[in-house]
Specification:
It is built from 14 helices and 12 strands. It has helices spanning 26-38, 50-53, 62-77, 113-130, 161-178, 191-194, 202-207, 222-226, 231-234, 236-244, 272-283, 325-335, 365-375, 391-397, and strands at 6-10, 43-46, 81-87, 90-91, 94-95, 136-142, 212-216, 255-260, 289-294, 346-350, 380-384, 401-403.
């Protein structure tokens, strides 16, 4: 367990969104970071756009790398650490893939040897450029890159789970070659935990890299099914943190809530602060939480076209740097004392077979049973069905009671059971 839970924000620039890399303005970045630091946050997660940094397989633009280092140094001046996502990849409904991987040059992002070595060189270069910066947290391979490997992506690069593991292992090694002493990780969107045919598996997330990253978005069916103030909606981030622990080999592997936000209209703007308070309060009750990184810093400007409507309002700040109620809610949480949570002693059994992971998704029996336990006042975690009788494993995690979804009865009318 870290000495203190980290609080940060995914840095979306106020001017130009991520296209700011094309016309990098350090003064604008400094003004953005000043406002972020004033909230009492301690880190930012930043996103180089891959085609802008590596427009050709053998060309990694030195000026772009220099701009990334200048951003990191500006963050350090304001007391902010910096985590860097390399392969962007996918952001806010747009794909950013270099031309040397698409159309006439179409090659599989995960299995083509030249593409993989190009990616490795790019990640190694970014990591090495930042390796001597004390505020560099490490690399994340990319933002939700698993979405390129299966449906519902309209043009996926199909791979097997074995292919995914080889790709992850190679690129994590490349990051370590560039910055050997930093924790590097990878990040998937929640299909890794919920989608039966997703080749990036829960085991990959929970066992490869220095930390487990989870991205919690309640527009995945949770808020649609249960409403914005429901137990499942307000505890969804905590659920993903605890779900991830079933697959971890280390009993106290740190988990980073790397993305979480208040998406309208499921969470209307006037209720975003309350959702933030509830989400953060509930996830802080999870042992081994490394940090909470909110999505995102600044609203997308209305001057930019074609974004999904929710993207224009997800920021802690408006695009002219005015703090919103959600910013104040996160700032209050960051400044409050957070005593370490007690061990979660009740574990809900989940299927180890990745082909059955949809049982953990919204509407599945594991999902529903977990939240019945929460509604009844329990503080559940999870354990794989293959480890449910492993006394050594249970003891290492502090688990004293194991229940199956079929044993968890619906909460009776009138409230929790006594």
């Amino acid at each position: 367990m870290p000495a203190a839970v980290r609080f940060g924000v995914n840095y979306t620039p106020s001017e130009g969104w991520f296209h700011h890399w094309l016309d990098f303005d350090l003064d604008a970045v400094r003004a953005d970071l000043d406002a972020i630091a004033a909230l009492g946050l301690d880190h930012v997660r930043v996103f180089p756009l891959w085609p802008y940094f590596q427009p050709n397989r053998t060309l990694i633009r030195p000026r772009a790398v220099e701009d990334l280092v200048r951003l990191a140094d500006a963050a350090a001046e304001r007391g902010l650490d910096v985590g860097v996502d390399g392969l962007q990849g996918h952001l806010s409904s747009f794909d950013f893939l270099p031309a040397w991987t698409r159309t006439w040059h179409r090659r599989n992002l995960f299995t083509d040897p030249d593409v993989v070595e190009g990616q490795a060189g790019y990640l190694r270069t970014l990591a090495a450029a930042l390796a001597d910066r004390p505020n560099f947290l490490g690399m994340t391979l990319g933002n939700e890159v698993n979405q390129f490997a299966a449906g519902p992506h309209p043009d996926p690069d199909r791979i097997t789970p074995e292919d995914a593991e080889r790709w992850l292992t190679r690129l994590l090694a490349a990051c370590a070659e560039g910055a050997p002493d930093r924790p590097h990780l990878h990040a998937s969107y929640d299909a890794a935990w919920y989608q039966d045919d997703q080749p990036f598996t829960p085991g990959h997330s929970a066992r490869l890299g220095a930390l487990t990253a989870v991205h919690s978005w309640v527009f995945n069916g949770t808020a649609q099914r249960h409403g914005r103030t429901s137990v499942p909606t307000e505890h969804h981030a905590a659920y993903l943190v605890e779900l991830s622990k079933a697959w971890a080999e280390e009993p106290h592997r740190p988990v980073w809530l790397q993305e979480v936000g208040a998406p309208a209209p499921l969470v209307p703007a006037e209720h975003a602060a309350a959702f933030t308070e509830a989400t953060v309060r509930n996830v802080l009750d999870c042992p081994d939480l490394w940090g909470v990184t909110w999505w995102c810093s600044y609203d997308v400007s209305r001057a930019l076209a074609d974004f999904p409507e929710l993207e224009y309002g997800l920021g802690l700040f408006t695009s002219d740097r005015r703090p919103k109620d959600v910013a104040r809610a996160l700032a209050d949480a960051a400044r409050a004392p957070h005593p370490p949570p007690a061990t979660r002693t009740t574990a809900l059994v989940v299927p180890a077979d990745p082909a059955r992971r949809s049982r953990c998704a919204p509407g599945g029996p594991v999902f529903d049973a977990f939240f019945r336990l929460v509604a009844d006042g329990a503080r559940p975690t999870t354990v794989l069905d293959t480890r449910a009788d492993d006394k050594e494993h249970l003891t290492a995690r502090g688990i004293t009671e194991v229940v199956t979804p079929g044993q968890v009865l619906p909460t009776p009318p009138g409230g929790p059971r006594s």
